[in-house]
TrEMBL record, chain A:
Residues 243-389 form the Thiolase C-terminal domain. InterPro entries: Thiolase, Thiolase-like, Thiolase_C_2, Thiolase_N. The keyword Cell inner membrane does not apply. Residues 4-223 form the Thiolase N-terminal domain. It comes from Saccharolobus caldissimus. One of its GO terms (molecular function) is acyltransferase activity, transferring groups other than amino-acyl groups. Gene3D superfamilies: 3.40.47.10. This is Acetyl-CoA acetyltransferase. Keywords: Isoprene biosynthesis. It holds the Pfam family Thiolase_N. One of its GO terms (biological process) is isoprenoid biosynthetic process.
From TrEMBL, chain B:
Residues 104-164 form the ChsH2 C-terminal OB-fold domain. PANTHER family: BLR3430 PROTEIN, DNA-BINDING PROTEIN. This is 3-hydroxybutyryl-CoA epimerase. SUPFAM superfamilies: Nucleic acid-binding proteins. Residues 66-100 form the ChsH2 rubredoxin-like zinc ribbon domain. It comes from Saccharolobus caldissimus.
């Protein structure tokens, strides 16, 4: 089957984007991706819209966006995989090209969460576990779901609140260099420790913000990619798995099983050894909707042994220059987490890192020419792990 | 207090304020348009409100609610492979058998983890901060419920039992976790 490359990327400013509506927001990323790849809408065979939906007024977002961005009458659909929606959209386009169904496909991830007032947003996210058995009567919130993992790990592995704080501090540090990030302010440990508890043991500074934003990538088959650009970034493999809707049906609350299984699948296809996975990558984007999620990602991706993820954070091993730089664009924590855009934003960040086009203060050393994105939907309801490389996978 | 009164107390104040604001905007400018306080950006305030209340079919597992109202917690058990299901379900999707047996759960187990919800969803605003825990029961299944104890008395690994209680102020039956002394 054909190899697939990213030939263009686009990224809007993330934040409280009440200056534009949903389709205008999507256009910012679409326009940038078209300009970057020197392509016109007529060159795009199909477009996929990653939009979790429910937050903003238009229920058929793919169509509203297609009309506004002049992409109609090309075929499209809206894709949903909770917070992994963007990666799911990427998968559809990737597979269409692999199967020979399209030569050039555009992936647009967008979410405008601020159209819903804050209390409604908290309610909507809480309902996204298993509605009937875990929300209707027990009112779990989204931070609450992840807090259950944090409590368990603190009891079992001696993880401290300060270890979680290290994640927040790192991601805010890098966010301060990213002009697209929602938060561009660095934070200190005492501010972290003093921030308000939202779901014990998680605090405001453990949580990603409610964000508006858009990101886009253009994918092309090997044959046309070479004509479009002399610096394609190849998709090597993608693993995707699912978990239970009921959190209570998880085995142990120390790891996101779906993410670990997705990583194993992606590594197997890419011939990467799980235990030494970090040696293969120059940079990683992991799903840090809460600081505890980033700690678990270190282990679920094989960057640290099980139970030792927080030690990697404690030692500062995930800054640039450490074992493996993680979320050096600020992560969901500081960059923001517009649900449908997040997975696409991760692909944009990795692509730009590998091409030495990252923002000043966030560029890693590219030695292996490989990067990885880990995108979790819900609290391990969905998981997508995608590997990117400067080298053609079949070469 | 019933659901109606709670709903009125909880939401009408918010709804009423929002509607009054829309009226005021239209009166002033002839448009439901306001400026965002932080950014000064112009926002159209939707005049078509969407309220959803779902109706969830529970006929196949009605026995659970029937027993719950009598103070008992049941799960279901597959007569073929012996799998125990909680939350209860009437299909064993492993061996494709339906009409599973009912078993009363011991209700005794160990607390695996917990959290204290301090920032609450709108529909839970009328409760005090609550502790949500997950316990593993002797039968090997997990149960998620509120832990009705003081936060300082809750520890991972503590022995707990499941209790049937009335959810107040609405007054319907549900279950909670309590510490075993
Ligand atoms: Zn069975």
């Amino acid at each position: 089957m054909v190899d697939v490359a990213i030939v263009g990327t686009g990224h809007s400013k993330f934040g409280n984007r009440t200056d534009v509506n949903l389709q205008e927001l999507a256009w910012e990323a679409v326009k940038q991706a078209l300009e970057e790849s020197n392509l016109d809408q007529k060159d795009i065979d199909m477009f996929v819209v990653g939009n979790a939906g429910g937050w903003s007024s238009e229920p058929l977002s793919a169509i509203v966006i297609g009309e506004y961005c002049n992409l109609a009458p090309k075929g499209t659909m809206r894709v949903e995989a909770a917070c992994a929606t963007g990666s799911a959209a990427l998968r559809i386009a990737y597979q269409a090209i692999k199967a020979g169904d399209a030569k050039i496909a555009m992936v647009i991830g967008v979410e405008q969460m601020h159209q819903s007032p804050n209390p409604v947003a908290i309610e909507m996210m809480g309902r996204a576990g298993n509605y009937f058995w875990e929300f209707e009567n027990f009112g779990l919130t989204f931070p609450g779901y992840y807090a259950l993992y944090a409590t368990r790990r603190m009891a079992k592995f001696g993880m401290k609140e300060e270890d979680l704080g290290q994640i927040a501090i790192k991601n805010h540090y890098y966010g301060s260099f990213n002009p697209y990030a929602m938060f561009q302010k660095q934070i200190k440990m005492d501010e972290y420790m003093k921030s308000r508890v939202v779901a014990y043991p998680l605090k405001v500074y453990d949580a990603c913000p409610i964000t508006d934003g858009a990101a886009a990538v253009i994918l092309a088959s090997e044959e046309v990619a070479k004509k479009i650009t002399d610096s394609p970034v190849w998709i090597v493999s993608q693993g995707f798995k699912s978990g239970t809707a009921n959190l209570s049906k998880r085995d142990d609350f120390i790891s996101i099983d779906a993410a670990r299984l997705a990583a194993e699948e992606a590594y197997k296809k890419a011939r990467i050894d799980f235990e030494n996975s970090w040696r293969y990558f120059d940079v990683a984007e992991v799903h840090d909707c809460f600081t505890i999620a980033e700690i678990m990602a270190y282990e679920d991706l094989g960057f640290a042994k099980r139970g030792e993820g927080h030690l990697l954070a404690r030692e500062g091993q995930t800054y640039i220059g450490g074992r493996i730089p993680v979320n050096v664009d600020g992560g969901l924590k500081a960059k923001g987490h517009p649900i449908g855009a997040t997975g696409v934003s991760m692909a944009v960040s990795i692509t730009r890192q590998l091409l030495y086009r990252a923002h000043k203060g966030t560029q890693v050393d590219v030695k292996n020419g490989m990067g990885i994105a880990h995108n979790v939907g819900g609290t391990g309801h969905y998981a997508y792990v995608t590997i990117f490389s400067l080298k053609k996978p079949s070469a | 207090m019933g659901v109606t009164e709670i709903r009125e107390r909880q939401f009408n104040e918010i709804d009423k304020k929002a509607l009054e604001q829309i009226d005021l905007l239209i009166k002033n400018s002839g448009m439901p348009i306001m400026r965002d306080l932080k950014t000064n950006n112009l926002l159209w305030i939707d005049v078509r409100e969407l309220t959803q209340r779902f109706m969830i079919p529970i006929g196949r597992i009605y026995k659970f609610f029937d027993q719950l109202s009598k103070g008992k917690i049941i799960g279901t058990k597959c007569p073929k492979c012996g799998s125990i299901y909680f939350p209860p379900q009437d299909d064993c999707t492993k061996c494709k058998v339906s009409g599973l047996d009912v078993i009363e759960l011991s209700g005794e187990g160990e607390l695996l983890t917990y959290t204290i919800i301090t920032v609450k969803p709108v529909s839970f605003m009328h409760y005090q901060d609550y502790i949500v825990g997950i316990a593993r029961l002797k039968e090997g299944i997990n149960i998620l419920a509120w832990v009705n104890e003081k936060p300082e008395d809750v520890k991972v690994g503590m022995k707990v039992k499941v209790n049937v209680v009335k959810r107040e102020p609405e007054g319907y039956f549900t279950y909670e976790l309590r510490k075993i002394q």
